[in-house]
Amino acid sequence: MNRSGTQACPICERAAKLVEHHIEGRSISSDYVAWICPICHDDVHAGDLIIEGIYQTTNGIELIWRREEDQPIVADGAQTYQY
After folding, report:
1. Which among 47, 52, 65, 74 is least buried, having the fewest CB atoms inside 10 angstroms?
2. Per residue of the chain (83 residues), what is the pLDDT tens digit?
3. Counting beta carbons within 10 angstroms of the beta carbon of residue 71, is it exposed (0 to 12), middle (13 to 18) or buried (19 or more)?
């Protein structure tokens, strides 16, 4: 985060004040919260973006997402990252 309180969105990389998106309903667990920009948050709620989860990958812990028209990225049986 920089002095203005903005941070790069993990989806679009825009610098913005990120908002909390609950991946699984209204869970209060941080395992199911993604911090994304307001524009991407609106796209998720409009159904244009699908957040598949937060996963441990070979690049570290990553937010995995896709556009609605794309095929699912995460294989069946993949395990979300547990903090």
Report:
1. 47
2. 556 679 999 999 999 999 999 887 555 555 678 899 999 999 999 999 998 888 888 888 888 889 888 887 665 555 554 44
3. exposed
